[in-house]
Fold:
Amino acid sequence: MSIKSPFRFLAALVLVPGLAGCFASPGGESSSDGGPSGSRLRVALAFPPAENFSPYGADATLLSRLGVTEGLTALDANGAAAPALAESWRRENDRTWRFTLREATFQDGTDVTPSAVADALTRATKAKPVPAALAGVSLDAEAEGSRGIRVTTAAADPVLPMRLSSPSLAILSPKAYEKKGAPTPVGTATGPFEITKVDSGGSATLDRFDDYWGGRAQASGIDARFVKDGTARANAVRTGDVDIAEAIPVAQAATLDKATLKEAGTTRTTSLHLNTTTGPFKDPKLRAAARAAVDSSAIVKGVFEGYADPGAGIYGPAVTWADSKRVKPTGRADAARPDGTRITLATYDNRPELPEVAQVVQQQLEKAGFTVKLEVREYSRLESDALAGKFDAFIGARNSLLDTGDPVGVLAGDYTCDGGYNLALLCDKTVDRAVEKADGTDGTGERQDAAMAAEAAILGTDAVVPLAHQQIIAGVSTKVRGAVLDPYERALVGTGTRR
Structure:
């Protein structure tokens, strides 16, 4: 373990602006208690929308971090399901749960009704690709009375309340679905902040939603800008041009004032994904050669400068129970000699450490005998090609508990034949059976054991090579109060966030 504590959950909500003069802070209106309204928050995020703010893909977490969307449930600090749009729920039998809605209003002024919620969930089940939280899951949602929702799954789903907390299962009003294509969250969500303007993916303006069921936010709005350059985000913190900045580069951490530098353990892992369907890594022996060539301790020391732990598995030390339950992978192929095999390795630069990680991995693979072409792009220009298998290898950072809070969720979404975010294009019957078994296991400890057995099956294919378990480095102005601390990287601002 690194000398940086992975349990200081400060969150991946560090989002920050870029250049001086980018943000204006309009005068305040009255707050709910009659005092002056809080200033607007200036926030910069590392990732621009990749899918026009569709709630069904990677953009879902952008929406939840900015306080725009929410689901029936949320996750509490311990990773358990907590009330959100549903104020309570009960399990009626193995396959059926009944949720009771609270009184709430959509941002278009209509009421959150059982029929609207049932329709939103039904549409999510039909999305293509299927949201990661629903990978391998079939469910039906029906309205019941004035406040009830009955959700029935095809198979027993003991973690359904956690699953419904996923940002990709946000509840939107019927208006969101009026046009063909992905639904729009602009003015149709339920969170404390409402998107009022989007500028070609470069920035977004959000205003406070005064009828939010949880009370009026203390900030009057958010001016969000998507700044992929990590140095620019760090500079903006130093100059006071932003209030919160996420993903400060390791190389910039020492330049920030100690009072503004925040570090947090997260459940995020940086991994090398090997294309198992086409190209050289279709051969498991070459995958084994790539895995043997990688030295993750050199990556942690040389690139992350101690703000990470060496890759141990899909789950890192911030998942506190994982290490004691980890199962050794079996069935790995013997490594073949690469003999100059040509591969294309891709990554993205929104997370500034990743290109550096890729360069180290490139050197390690070349030393082992591969010939490596490195391709670096901005994430929104890379995701579709990566999921289509256009690269032989891909380095990405993934929060293992982001989609559902359930340890099995990331396994189903990322490593099964039907997974919606399967960067390795892995389709292995043994893996699918192990994940299916874990997904049907009840009881917290038993489910964790089954998840670790499935992790071992996945690692045994050498489709993924864990490189580092990351920590978040954030810049937060000393004027900011109430920044949300979230190890699951779903939140950034809440009703109490202000400056």
